[in-house]
């Protein structure tokens, strides 16, 4: 049975061009977006919002919409667009506070990248899979 995973494209629109929240990859060079596995009895949009809160420390983002779904190995991956509140710092660190999660206590370093197709090569671990749809959503 396939497991569901949520990816969160958190964007800030108080900059021109809009920017995507990314964290330095723990797997090597490059950047990742917030992502995580669906918990039991949780709808996948809730998973995305929970992961944004746990991994990035952001609890007041607004869910935009689901940008796409893809099957990868034994996962069904859902990509969501979230709008961050204005005035967030250009870079920050956050310690994951989720005692039942495998990444509890891990410190992630966050920054922002301008949203364009040019950042595709910087996004790793499947994070760039729906970048085209994100760019299109930002042009509306």
Quick summary:
This protein is of the alpha+beta class and 140 residues long. It is 15% helix and 39% strand.
What does this structure look like?
It contains two helices and eight strands. The chain is globular and about 40 Å long. The longest helix has 13 residues, at 44-56. It has a single domain (3-138), classed as Nucleoside Triphosphate Pyrophosphohydrolase (Alpha-Beta Complex). The relative contact order is 0.28. Strands 1, 2, 3, 4, 5, 6, 7 and 8 form an eight-stranded mixed sheet that branches. It starts with a strand and ends with a helix. A hairpin with a 6-residue loop joins β1 and β2. The model has no long low-confidence stretch (mean pLDDT 95). The chain is α+β, with helices and mostly antiparallel strands and 140 residues long.
Which strand-content bin applies to the residues? Answer: 35-45%
Q: Could you give the order of the helices and strands? A: EEEEHEEEEH
Tally of separate helices? 2
Q: What is the CATH architecture descriptor?
A: Alpha-Beta Complex
How many independent structural domains?
Answer: 1
**Which outline best applies?**
globular
Number of separate strands? 8
Indicate the radius of gyration in whole angstroms. 14 Å
Mean pLDDT: 95
Determine and state the CATH class. Answer: Alpha Beta
Question: What is the distance, rounded to the nearest whole angstrom, between the alpha carbons of the first and last residues?
Answer: 37 Å
Oligomer: single chain
Tell me the helix content: 10-25%
The CATH topology: Nucleoside Triphosphate Pyrophosphohydrolase
What characterizes the major β-sheet? 8 strands, mixed
Q: Assign the structural class, choosing from mainly alpha, mainly beta, alpha/beta, alpha+beta, or little secondary structure.
A: alpha+beta
Low-confidence stretches: none
